C-alpha cells in the first residue's frame, strides 16, 4: 500500500512537468534576425499597444494563413 501511495505521489508531482513537456512538444520556434533599429521600433510599438512582440507575430502569422491557406 505504501508503494502505491509513493507512486501516486510521484505521479502527481511529475504531472505539471509532463504537461509542460507535452505543450512544448506541440510548439515550434521561429527565429527572426532584424536590424537593431527595426527591432527597437517594433518592441516600442508593441509596448504602446499593450501587446508583446510574440502576440503580434502570432497574430500576423494567423492573418497571413487566413489570406494564404496551405
UniProtKB/TrEMBL annotation:
The record's section on SUPFAM superfamilies has: Ribbon-helix-helix
* Comp. bias regions, Basic and acidic residues: 17-27
Instruction: Write down the Pfam families for this protein, in alphabetical order.
Output: ParG
Q: Name one GO biological process term.
A: regulation of DNA-templated transcription
Provide the residue span(s) of the region labelled Disordered.
1-27
What name has this protein been given in UniProt? Answer: Conjugal transfer protein
Lineage of the source organism? Bacteria, Pseudomonadati, Pseudomonadota, Gammaproteobacteria, Pseudomonadales
Amino acid at each position: 500500500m505504501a508503494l502505491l501511495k509513493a507512486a501516486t505521489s510521484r505521479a502527481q508531482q511529475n504531472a505539471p512537468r509532463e504537461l509542460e513537456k507535452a505543450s512544448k512538444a506541440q510548439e515550434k520556434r521561429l527565429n527572426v534576425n532584424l536590424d537593431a533599429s527595426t527591432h527597437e521600433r517594433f518592441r516600442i510599438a508593441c509596448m504602446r499597444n499593450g501587446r508583446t512582440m510574440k502576440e503580434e507575430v502570432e497574430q500576423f502569422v494567423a492573418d497571413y494563413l487566413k489570406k494564404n491557406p496551405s
